[in-house]
Amino acid sequence: MRKVWDIHGGVHPPENKQQSMQQALASLPLAPELVLPLNQHIGKPAIAIVAEGDTVLKGQLIAKADGPISANIHAPTSGTVSGIEDRTLPHPSGGSGPCIVISSDGKDTWAELDACENYQTLDHNTLLEKIRSAGIAGMGGAGFPAAIKLNPRGNLKIDTLILNGTECEPYITADDTLMQTRAQEVVAGAQILAQLLGNPKSILIGIEDNKPEAIRSISKALSEVENNPIEVVSFPTKYPSGGEKQLIQILTGREVPAGKLPADVGVVCQNVGSTVAAYRAVRFGEPLISRITTVVGEALEIQRNIEVPIGTPIGYILEQHGFTAANVSRLIMGGPMMGFALNTADVPVIKTTNCILAPSRAEMPAPPPAQACIRCGMCAEACPASLLPQQLFWYSMAEDLDKLEAHNIADCIECGACSYVCPSNIPLVQFYRASKGAMKQHAIDKEKSDRSRARFEFRQQRIEKAEVEKEAKRAARKVAAEAAKAKLAAKQASEGDSPKTDDTADVVAAAIAKAKTQDISPEVQLAKLERALSSASSRLDRTLARAEEAEGEKKDAILARVKDAELKVSDAKNKLAEFQARENG
Amino acid sequence: MIELIIQYPVLAALLAMVGLSLVFGAVLGFAAVKFKVEGDPIVEQIDSLLPQTQCGQCGHPGCKPYAEGIANGEAINKCPPGGQTTINAIADLLDVEAPTLDEEHGEEKDLPTVAYIREDECIGCTKCIQACPMDAILGAAKQMHTVIIDECTGCDLCVEPCPVDCIDMLPLESTLGEWKWSLPPRSETLALNIIASDRKAHSEASA
User: Which of A285, A302, A548, B10 has the fewest beta carbons closer than 10 A?
Assistant: First the structure.
């Protein structure tokens, strides 16, 4: 017997697992319409690659992963794409998002699959690619794309692979059913994952001791394997042992540091459902298009586990199980601890839907109103992450994000054990969820405002620089103009001097100058100068009029233009006077 | 030396004091040069709390000048884009009572907005480009302009200069990824006394 460790806190809610285990795993007749949200996983939504009206086959790729943290989506049955539109999503917000809607043709015709019998000989990248392209996203409920976890950064040495068959939440028995009915596939999947991770030293399948059947069937499957390196570890039932970090601590005694990943302590953890999906992807080329879901609750006539195509509307499933809408207190996707209430049954099953819970009012009454905190400290005793829920609660009420961060709210796994034990019925975990959201928003706002500041400052600098350059150019022009004037004056002076000298060159130059001045008659020159003067002065008038109208920053610009015009007028006047003086003199 | 001190105790004491003050003065002078704080740190801190929309609704040409204004004793409730959250944060920093937003400078928006140019109406005058403090408008003379949504702070400054009024301020669409849980509604008992032993707070509230 392998040593197991204990985690801090935890609770023992009524298990309620027997209701759904009375009947064998079943499947439903195909729903007429399947709705596939483009974002069923953590990360970027997939990009649809089919169009309305396209015919698709079962298993055909219909939406492609957008980047590494995303997952492919495949058609769960054959039929036509009847639309790509916004539908209500199974999401706590009750919001809607883009979905591919497939009308099934009832034939369930498979696309050609890339099966592979001797997958043991495949190299690492081919295997990983097969798993990635199958669109497997963590089926325990988190929905993190499986291929990423199976390809840890190069410098990390993985010595332990853990398959999570804990399923610690009450009511849910999907993984239990899977391990009982598909033990061989779980084992074969474990071998594939081990191969991918370079055959880690220990390969553990963690199962809580309230699932003896599952433990027995997995052990039996393992006994059939030669040189079996895989070990089943059972440990005492306690919620939330199935949390990734909690399970790692229970099985290895290692604690995943805050803000780090399991791979940082040499562990990779995968859900058993994802493991089976990986096996089917590699062995048969089957993408993830169906999953086992627990349908349970007293508002249903039939409570059992079903293998259901992804995209099947929950309303359709409930209908098949004798659902009485009048009896249900609220419809929940996921378990009673971490699941969320659905506003409508008109949402589909997605890759992470492990349970559909339809409890009656007697079974799950509305929560009583919250009372004041009596500082009993039971929440702190129950917290599996060893946080201080009371403090977090007060700071959440005060919306003091700095203090929340200092009290490590980021390490809260939102398991709800604190709310469960609270004698004052305070919905503690709701406060933490809201505060985590607020912190995320604050971080985004902060980043945006920092970027805005940088952009604004850069713009200011650029404008200043442009201003300085303009000024420099203006100064350069002024210098050039003065130099030209001086040259002209010198030339004129030399013209005046030329007759006195005997230099032939000067005589020639003087002759040319004389010829030039003779070309244009004095009358023409006079008219030209007068015209220049009048146009300059009219321009001045115009700009002055505009300056009166303008306001603010623009006024400065126009005033500068006025000055310019004034300069031109005086220049024209000077020239005219000079010319007249020359003519007269 | 000792004889001298004994002979003229007052003078010796005076000398000692002068000597000490010279030494300390030198040390302080050196420290003032060596550990000089660039700029006014409080201005930086206030600036980091302001929303950096650079909208000028406070009457300053940008957020930094307003931060300087606040550091010089100006009212802290002149920033509509930041709203009550920003006022509270600055009040917290400066350790003063948080006032409510001064409506004279504008109202707090419920949703963040961004500018949107109706592109077929745009005549390409570049006036909005010059007005944008963020350089978030892209375009050239006689070419259609468009707003880079990610950089737009929703400051409104581009709306007024547009000669054809083709700029709208639209609420920023939120995606499901940005959705977050909201705080649970506070039941009366919870709002009045967070801790059951808060008798004082309770009696005050009920009084």
Answer: B10
Task: DSSP letter for B195, please.
Answer: B
Q: Are A133 and A280 in contact (CB under 8 A)?
A: no
Strands in B62-164 per DSSP E: 113-117, 137-138, 146-147
Q: How confident is the model at residue A156 (pLDDT cuts 50, 70, 90)?
A: confident
By the 8 A CB rule, do A125 and A195 touch? no
Residues A530, A575: Cα–Cα separation, whole Å: 9
Contact A456 B62 (CB under 8 A): yes
Nearest-CA distance from B35 to chain A in Å? 26
Closest CB to B133 among A375, A399, A456 = A456
Residues 6+ apart with CB under 8 A from A479: none
Give the start-to-end residue ranges of the domains of chain A.
Answer: 19-357, 378-439, 520-584
Give Cα separations from A325 to A317, A321, A349 (angstroms).
13, 12, 19
As given in the structure block, the two tokens for residue A375 are 């500082």
ipTM, interface predicted TM-score of the complex? 0.76
Is A451 in contact with B151 (Cβ distance < 8 A)? yes
Q: Beginning with the edge strand found earlier in the chain, give each strand of the sheet holding A290-296 in spatial order.
A: A26-27, A304-309, A290-296, A355-357, A331-333, A340-342
CB contact (8 A) between residue B136 and residue A455: yes
CA distances from A18 to A173, A178, A180, A218 (A): 9, 15, 14, 20
- Helices A428-497, A389-398: axis angle to 10 degrees equals 50
Closest by CA to A167, choosing from A197, A199, A141, A147, is A141
* Disruptive mutation site among B132, B181, B192 for chain A (greatest number of A CBs within 10 Å): B181
Q: Which of B44, B52, B92 to substitute to test the interface with A, most A CBs within 10 Å?
A: B52
Rounded Cα gap, residues A188 and A476, in angstroms = 82
- Which CATH code of 3.40.50.11540, 3.90.700.10, 3.40.50.1110, 3.40.50.620 fits the domain covering A19-357? 3.40.50.11540
pLDDT, residue A581, reads 81
Mapped onto helix, strand or coil, the DSSP state of residue A462 is helix
Q: Residue A459 contacts by C-beta under 8 Å, 6 or more apart in sequence?
A: B133, B134, B135
Q: What is the DSSP string of B167-189?
A: EEEEEPPPPGGG--PPPPPPPHH
Per-residue pLDDT of A555-568, as tens digits, reads 777 777 788 888 88
Q: How many CA atoms lie within 13 A of A288 on its CB side?
A: 35
CB neighbour list of residue A386: distance below 8 Å, 6 or more residues apart = A8, A9
Domain B41-105 in CATH 1.10.15.40? The answer is yes
Give span(s): CATH 3.30.70.20, chain B. 110-178
Structure tokens at A487: 């040259």
Residue A111 C-alpha from the chain's centroid: 31
- The answer for residues whose C-beta is within 8 angstroms of residue A475's C-beta and 6 or more apart is none
- Chain A hits for B153, CB-CB cut-off 8 Å, are 448, 452
Pick the CATH number of B110-178 from 3.30.70.20, 2.70.40.10, 3.40.50.720, 3.30.420.40: 3.30.70.20
Say which of A91, A372, A453 has its CB closest to residue B189.
A372
Count of C-beta atoms within a 10 Å radius of residue B18: 10
Run of H or E residues at A248: helix A244-252
In whole angstroms, give the CA distance from residue A63 to residue A45.
9
Return the residue of A nearest to B183 by Cα. A434
The residue behind tokens 């007024």 is B160
pTM above 0.80, yes or no: no
pLDDT tens-digit map of A451-470: 999 999 999 999 999 999 99
- Determine, for residues A372 and B183 on separate chains, whether the beta-carbon distance falls below 8 Å: no
